[in-house]
Amino acid sequence: MGVPLLIQLPKEAFCMKTRYMIIKEYAKVYKKARKKQKTEILDLLTGMLSMSRNYIAYLLRNTGKIVSRKGNIIVISDPTKNNLSKRGRKKVYGEEVLSVLKIIWRISGYISSKHLVWYIHSNQDILFKQPKIKEKLTPEIKWKLLKISASTIDRLLKSYRDKVKFDRRKGRNPYSSNLKKSIKVESIFDKPKVLGYVEVDLVHHSGASQRGEFIYTLTCTEITTGWTELEVLKNKAMIWTARALENIFKRLPMDVKILHSDNGSEFLNAHIQRICRDKGIEMSRSRPYKKNDSAYVESKNWSMVRAYTGWLRYDTEEEFKILRRLLRLVSLRNNLFIPQMKVKERERVGRKVIKRYDIDTPLNRVLRSEGVSEEKKEELWKLRSEIDIVELSQEIERLQEELYKAYKRKSRRRV
């Protein structure tokens, strides 16, 4: 018996169902064939179906084979795709969990999976009452959301993350004086971890060119709690910087003890020094060209400013007003609801340094601090309970769109 030779077809030429049908037909011939003919059949099917030779031989041997016979009942083997057992564990977290997880991730502002696990646990009293979540929530889904791990979240959200396009269209002044020399230099290793130690920095919204005047954002971070306040400046003139700092000092839940900045003239000047002296605040500065000496505030420049405004140039009154509203809401969401990681322990094992983190919201760290008054703590907790987290997130997204539209209108006018 001869077997016709065929050219090798593309792998996509047959679907799996068609391949199994072809194998089923050849199985009848294969079982009656001699060794040489079996080799020819295997050569033919391997080239034609683009499948493993050993697997094809297994299917040809076992298709139609009598597995068991009991009385009049005969069980015949049919190892096709539909009849093969599906190996591995069954999915625990299905589409119903993913649909709720997507909503929560968006409300959180697309934070990382490790932060999201903690975010769900700490804000479940608010999140699970939201209409969009509540209508999809069952006791089983709720239990799964509270049990889910960071790695599982990464796996579930992988394809969704690829689709979510974070819009990045929101595309050294040398100074030396006696004043500067009078302010002590403090590196990242010298910082005292005391409540009230704040780092400040300016974010430039200058776009590609730093010519002319443009808007700045002043970022202020308290290093022990992670509490961060943002203030928008029309430019970095001394008067605006001083006024922004005074507004931030009023909003911070704790008294400021140390103010740490870089070597910019917007902070190292007689006016700011006088304000600090009057309030009993000590000043310190980073080493020149060592951004890591202000590591806490530098990280917030990205996660709380650039992530929402991007790198476009903002220099109009309309953009200033939108930015002021937007960044105030960003501060509220990050301080009251978004968990932040802080290194609590470092251990060197050989060449590796193992870090262990504490993850919590700035609000909870403030509530545990002894240096904050009970009255202030009650005020902050009341504020958190009054804010609708979904409405807050939606308003942030709306203001981001409004800011970009204002930028586009300005660009068209200037062309």
Q: How is this structure best described in words?
A:
There is one protein chain. This protein has 415 residues and is an alpha/beta fold. 50% of the residues lie in helices and 14% in strands. The chain has helices at residues 16-32, 35-49, 53-62, 95-107, 113-122, 124-127, 131-134, 139-147, 150-163, 178-182, 238-251, 270-279, 295-309, 317-336, 362-368, 374-386, 389-414; strands at 66-70, 73-76, 184-185, 197-204, 216-222, 228-233, 258-261, 282-285, 340-349, 352-360. The strands form three sheets. It has a six-stranded mixed β-sheet, sandwiched between helices. Strands 1-2 form a two-stranded antiparallel ribbon. β7 (258-261), α12 (270-279) and β8 form a beta-alpha-beta unit. α1 packs across α3 and α14 packs antiparallel against α17. The N and C termini lie far apart (81 Å).
- Percent of residues in helices comes to 40-55%
Number of E strands:
10
* Net shape: elongated
Order of helices and strands: HHHEEHHHHHHHEEEEHEHEHHEEHHH
Summarize the structure.
The protein is α/β, with parallel strands linked by helices.
Give the arrangement of secondary structure elements:
Layout lengths: L15 H17 L2 H15 L3 H10 L3 E5 L2 E4 L18 H13 L5 H10 L1 H4 L3 H4 L4 H9 L2 H14 L14 H5 L1 E2 L11 E8 L11 E7 L5 E6 L4 H14 L6 E4 L8 H10 L2 E4 L9 H15 L7 H20 L3 E10 L2 E9 L1 H7 L5 H13 L2 H26 L1
Parallel strand pairs: 3-8, 4-7, 7-8
Antiparallel strand pairs: 1-2, 4-5, 5-6, 9-10
Helix pairs in contact: 1-2, 1-3, 5-9, 13-14, 14-17
